[in-house]
Amino acid sequence: MARDSVSEQNGGSGDTAALRDAFGRAMQIGCAVGGRLPEVLSADERDLLLRHFGVLTPENCMKPGPIHPTPDSFHFEEADRLVAFADAYGLRVIGHCLAWHQQCPDWFYAGSRGEALTRLESHITAVAGRYRGKLQGWDVVNEAIADRGEGLRDTPARRAIGDDYVLRAFEFARAADPEAELYYNDYNIEEPGKRDRTLRLLEQLENAGARIDGVGIQGHWQLDQVPFDQLRAAIEAYRQLDLKVMITELDLDVVERPDCGADVSVLRSYTLAEDIYREGCPAPVLARQAEQYARLFEIFSAGGVSRVSFWGLHDGHTWLNSWPGPRTNHPLLFDRDCRPKPAYAAVLASAGRR
Ligand code: G3I
């Protein structure tokens, strides 16, 4: 496995200041975890996770397909284990996600509007109801806004139910777990066009009586292309709707990829020559990544972002090693051996400058 030789200079993770404390109570720091807990984590990974992160998001196991694979069966085991692990160590959990067009079985939205609505309701009632009172919040609807053009993305849910599937999902979630915070979550919603479509959707939902507590800007950005100014403006615009703003899936990709946001249906292959950092990430790239992470956290702090969750624990556990095709990536704050990268120190330093 490739190693980040530069980060070896930063010492082991045991003597590092905890990220989860760096920004005080104002901003929670979390990460996504995939697989069965606790055995998916090595001892070093478990220490890293417990030291730096205060809130967990299940990377896959609570999504419609994994948790509800057939109309009459649920696979709760992995999600139950994550919730139990979090409970044992005093971590919070974000449910992810109740309605999404990816990782969702074909039968889910088949048939008439009434049938699809009934299925959506029974899914949300079963899943959010099972964890009632145990989660901090739910990503209720994920990626419903079209990337281009007006309105909602063309999905099976929209085709079967209509645009109000979003409203109904929020209503069903509220009924299933009245205490949980409920979020709308999407990528590229700092980009002005998609931001304005998102603002309109959120206003419509609130006018229709839905209680929405927050909006999640996913934050799957690429090195040297981070839209800092757009992000600053978007955070402010969402805050003006009186919503919590969270960065829910943060990573900073260092290997070039097509301009496709985080749409997992867009794929490409990488040749060996294009897998440029398979032997490790060069020091100048790590330095640019550190500087850009620090600028991001300055914007998050100044904008009153209430939670920042990284989409993975370390560079060995990130979807960006396999999407949009297999390659070796280095997008997070810790390397494959759980050692802090320059970006970790830069983020901590940004906390000190608040
Ligand atoms: O679990 C199966 C396994 O049984 C099978 O053998 C294997 C073969 O391909 O696939 C495994 O499922 C994979 C799953 O991750 C678990 O590893 C899926 O193929 C793969 O598509 C899936 O990718 C996930 C992706 O969402 C799916 O859409 C990524 O791990 C996950 O990081 C990613 O997360 C999304 C957020 O939920 C929403 N925002 C974008 C973000 C990144 O795409």
Physical arrangement of strands within the biggest beta sheet = 1-2-3-4-5-6-8-9
Counting structural domains, the number is 1
Summing up helix and strand content along with how strands pair, one would put the structural category as alpha/beta
pLDDT averaged over residues: 93
| Rounded radius of gyration (Å) | 20 Å
User: What is the helix tally?
Assistant: 11
Question: Element order, helices and strands?
Answer: HEHEHHEHEHHEHEEHEHEH
SS elements, strand count: 9
Question: What is the C-level CATH assignment?
Answer: Alpha Beta
At CATH level 3, the topology is TIM Barrel
For the largest beta-sheet, the strand count, sense and barrel status come to:
8 strands, parallel, barrel
| Distance separating the two termini | 37 Å
β content, as a range? 5-15%
Give the low-confidence spans.
1-13
Q: Hetero groups bound?
A: ligand G3I
Query: CATH homologous superfamily name?
Result: Glycosidases
- Give the overall shape: globular
Portion of residues within helices = 25-40%
CATH architecture, by name, is Alpha-Beta Barrel
What does this structure look like?
The chain has 354 residues and is an alpha/beta fold. The chain has helices at 19-22, 43-52, 64-67, 77-89, 113-130, 156-161, 165-176, 192-207, 228-240, 283-303, 342-352, and strands spanning 28-33, 55-58, 92-99, 137-142, 181-186, 214-217, 220-222, 244-253, 307-310. Strands 1-2-3-4-5-6-8-9 form an 8-stranded parallel beta barrel, surrounded by 5 helices. Helix 9 (228-240) packs parallel to helix 10 and helix 10 packs parallel to helix 11 (342-352). The model is unreliable at 1-13 (pLDDT under 50). The structure holds ligand G3I. Residues 34, 59-60, 102-103, 142, 218, 249, 262, 264, 319 line the site of ligand G3I.
